[in-house]
Amino acid sequence: MEASLSLKGANDVSVSLYRKYRPQVFDDVAGQGIVVDVLRTALQRKRVGHAYLFSGPRGCGKTSVARLLAKALNCTDLRDGYEPCCQCDNCRAITSGESLDVVEIDGASNNGVEEIRELKSHVALSPFASQWKIYIIDEVHMLSIAAFNALLKTLEEPPSFVLFILATTEPQKVPVTIRSRCQHIPFRRIELEDIARTLGTIAAKENIPWEDEALREIARQSDGALRDAISMMEQTLALGGGELTMTAVDRLFGGGTSADLEEWIGALKKGSPRPLLMMEEMFGRGASPQRVVEGLFLLFRNLLAVRRWGKPVLDALALSEGEKVFFTEESPRWREEELSAMMLFTSKLIPQVRLGLRSDVLSGLMAAKDSELTLSERPSAAHEGTAAAA
Ligand SMILES: [Zn+2]
User: Which stretches of the chain are assigned E, i.e. beta strand?
Assistant: First the structure.
């Protein structure tokens, strides 16, 4: 579907779309249903604790939800016992980042014990204008041991009006003594479908024309991080002259989109130089080796699943119509052992490209693997030939 909406130039997107469309109420939070359920129940039963640990991959909404919780606690006109009204003085102050009772600390840049000591004396003071004083410490795993120890003292006996929300991408690096004082709420990476839908909602509100395939490709490349997806969407918009097109997405990712990778797989096992040339061309246009290898791994995994289990898997995977056609047409061309071998091959390459394997070496290895596949086809073809002749 292509939206027939009025064209709007990329220059009109002056405020970052991510900031503009940060969820303002719990019902707008994308892809974190369980987290929202837990917090909604706690708010409705007035059983919010004094310390939470929000963990999960980057860009999945931890800080946004922390601010929402702060807003819900200090809102003077709460809806349904959990949704902030977004109109009262407290809600407005928190949204604009001006509330004196909501303190955000970046653990990565305030990892010294001095900052935490300062925080300790601050914690004891009553809130200025609201019921709760909320401290949001982002990237909390970056704090030094001394800072953790100072924080622990505060967490052991928090004043009744204080809530700590610690956010981290690496909960295992937070000392057990700290973790055990917190209610741990794990966030998930956001599903491709949820990201694509959120991008579509934003595009519609901004009157930006879009192609569904383009939004899905951005969602795929964002790897579950909505923040990254929205930022990629803004870049696509700039490249696409105000439209979210597949052509612009292709330019942004320098090739290596799933359409490119599908075409590449379709060229394998034919004894042709195309796989090598296509790979060289993709890297020449600036495709990231890591994204290419990870993308191929997922395609081979899905191909294997479709080859083995057929339609039920096809229906269960979150695929676009184009992808369904690809898997349906491509899977009969492969034997299960070949697909397993390709999955294993690409999975072994993932750590290597992360460590900086050169793209020309990568395309060489890929071409060698293709030759191997092509050669392994021949004896069996010859064998079938003799069998048929006999
Ligand atoms: Zn309010």
Answer: 51-55, 102-106, 133-138, 162-168, 183-186
